[in-house]
Amino acid sequence: VLAAVNKTQEGHPFKQFLDIDVTLPADKVAEITDALFNKLNSILAKLKSVLLVENVLESIKFAVAMYALTYIGALMNGLTIVTLVWVGYFSLPRVYRDNQKQIDEAINPLKSKLDDLQAKLQSALPASIVGKKEE
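^ thats the sequence. predicted structure below, dont judge the formating
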């Protein structure tokens, strides 16, 4: 650093970093932004569908989840929730990979019961409320 400040002949200490090309290729930037906006548009469409009650069951699930989050928020600080999510994000995939067979055996009956319940609810509600198009 002193060589750069004193303008000595020893050379610039960061010459190797100054020679690196840091420009972004336009095609890669366009590809990444297209993927980002496609994902953003799908999220916004789903959010619109849930908030404007296009599908009653999805909106009810969203409302129940938001109601449950109020209790979770009342029990814990926001930073505690962020820490738990951070730890879970990195540890749960490993736990699932190590115990995949046992977890799948426990989850499959619950998933089938939930699918049956959702099918019963959708068949009980009129098509205009559920959001299905009548053919």
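The mean pLDDT is 87.
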